[in-house]
Design brief:
Layout: E1 6-7, H1 14-26, H2 29-41, E2 48-53, H3 57-68, E3 72-77, H4 85-93, E4 98-100, H5 107-118, E5 124-127, H6 131-139, E6 149-152, H7 155-166, E7 173-176, H8 181-204, E8 212-216, H9 220-231, E9 235-239, H10 243-251, E10 255-256, H11 259-262, E11 268-271, H12 281-284, E12 291-295, H13 305-311, E13 312-320, E14 323-328, E15 333-337, H14 343-346, H15 353-373, E16 380-382, H16 386-400, H17 409-416
């Protein structure tokens, strides 16, 4: 059988990709159960899905589950530095999924690949940062008549979708998969925390113990990163714009400072905010010699890269893999990791598969829910039904061999009666 449409680096890498995908699957037992359910029930038969996601082994396993459910799928990469070329090849050659992704592609190719998956005239959009949804609305609104809904799996993307909805620009129902309890707990807190440390360690081989790490942003991702950095012996400083989150950081024992005061004393600065220009020219100018800059907040706008280029008199590319050294006029050196893109995917392999097991199980079940209930959904941002979140937590506990209590009839009556 001929492969689906594709633009990947080398189909000859497919077998290496299969081994990578199957290894990840071992740590994704909940998603495996969803896969088996979909294969038996085929809830997505006849549906076309366009996805803009990180092309990794973990992503491959949710796409395999959706394919088992009957869907036809086209995938573009959501980040040029995270694409695993062997996984992309395996998805095309072994799993029958159209893939348009190459590691290290330039912005023009990125845009072309997004357009290519939209050419499949999708019924459902799976997005990671809202780029695909944004492109469909701005450049291909003619396709939206076929679109019954979609999912967004990042904080940054949900922020953009809510803004679109508030402006009356969002024309399809989108479900905020990012905002579920299991996603925030596992993916954002535990996943981002561990994988960001992993990326920094791989790129720099530095010791965290005794170093000062500045964590910009104390949402779920920032909390996870701060916890793990402190656990490895780093002195952690938090910067925030939200008084409630800043207070939370203080009460957890972290030093909280404005970035103006934190930047000059930080050995490692990591942005995890979802906003732009968090580390600006005035902060860059104050950094100590050898300071390391990294971003784990999705887009490469959190660190002001044009300002960094403007300050540097020399740029030494790849002093280590995924580490570029910028030399300032006074001789100070600043090290930028993964080109300011997601360090946990650019310099490492992203979240562990066990983390993505939860997030992707929620997303797969949500896709089936959209397929069943789309006629009742209006354009805008919707929450994942709580029963899906609960079901995924139950599947994960079963896979871990963990049992929990159940409410007795009397307990349920007590909770449901105001007269008790």
């Amino acid at each position: 059988m001929a492969p689906p449409p594709y633009d990947v680096a080398d189909l000859g890498l497919a077998q290496a990709g299969v081994r990578r995908v199957e290894w990840a699957e071992r740590a994704m037992p909940a998603l495996r159960r969803v896969h088996d359910r979909f294969a038996a029930e085929r809830p997505l038969t006849g549906l076309r899905i366009a996805a803009c996601m990180h092309v990794t082994a973990e992503t491959a396993n949710i796409l395999r589950a959706l394919r088992a459910g009957g869907a036809e799928i086209a995938l573009a990469a959501s980040n040029p530095v995270s694409t695993q070329d062997d996984t992309a090849a395996a998805l095309v050659a072994e799993y029958g999924i159209a893939v348009f992704a190459r590691a290290g592609m330039d912005p023009a190719t990125y845009d072309r690949n997004l357009a290519a998956v939209l050419e499949q005239r999708p019924h459902i959009l799976l997005d990671d940062g809202c780029d695909l949804v944004n492109l469909a609305h701005l450049d291909r609104p003619d396709l939206l008549a076929d679109t019954i809904g979609g999912c967004e799996q990042t904080t940054t993307g949900v922020i953009r979708l809510r803004r679109m909805s508030a402006d009356g620009a969002l024309k399809v129902p989108m479900v905020a998969v990012n905002d579920t309890a299991t996603k925030r707990m596992f993916d954002n807190r535990y996943g981002t925390g561990q994988s960001t440390i992993d990326g920094i360690m791989r790129a720099t081989n530095t010791m965290l113990a005794g170093r000062t790490m500045v964590v910009a942003g104390f949402g779920y991702c920032g909390r996870g990163l701060a916890e793990r950095a402190r656990g490895m012996g780093a002195r952690v400083i938090v910067t925030e714009v939200d008084p409630v989150k800043a207070l939370d950081a203080v009460m957890q024992g972290y030093t909280v400072l404005p970035m103006d005061e934190a930047a000059p004393i930080g050995d490692i600065l990591v942005t995890v905010t979802g906003n732009r220009d968090v580390v600006r020219a005035e902060h860059l100018a104050s950094l100590k010699d050898g300071a390391v800059l990294a971003n784990s907040g999705h887009f490469d706008v959190e660190i002001d890269l044009p300002a960094l280029d403007g300050l540097a008199v020399e740029v030494r590319r790849e002093v280590r893999p995924q580490a570029d050294e910028y030399v300032l006029a006074d001789g100070r050196r600043i090290v930028l990791l993964a080109e300011g893109r997601l360090v946990n995917l650019g310099a490492a392999e992203g979240h562990p598969a066990a983390v993505m097991d939860m997030s992707f199980s929620v997303q797969a079940l949500t896709v089936a829910w959209i397929a069943e209930h789309h006629a009742d959904l209006h354009p805008g941002v919707h929450d994942v039904p709580r029963e899906i979140d609960t079901e995924v937590a139950r599947l994960e506990l079963e896979a871990l061999g963990v049992g929990i209590d159940r409410l007795t009839v009397d307990q349920e009556d007590y909770l449901n009666s105001w007269r008790a």
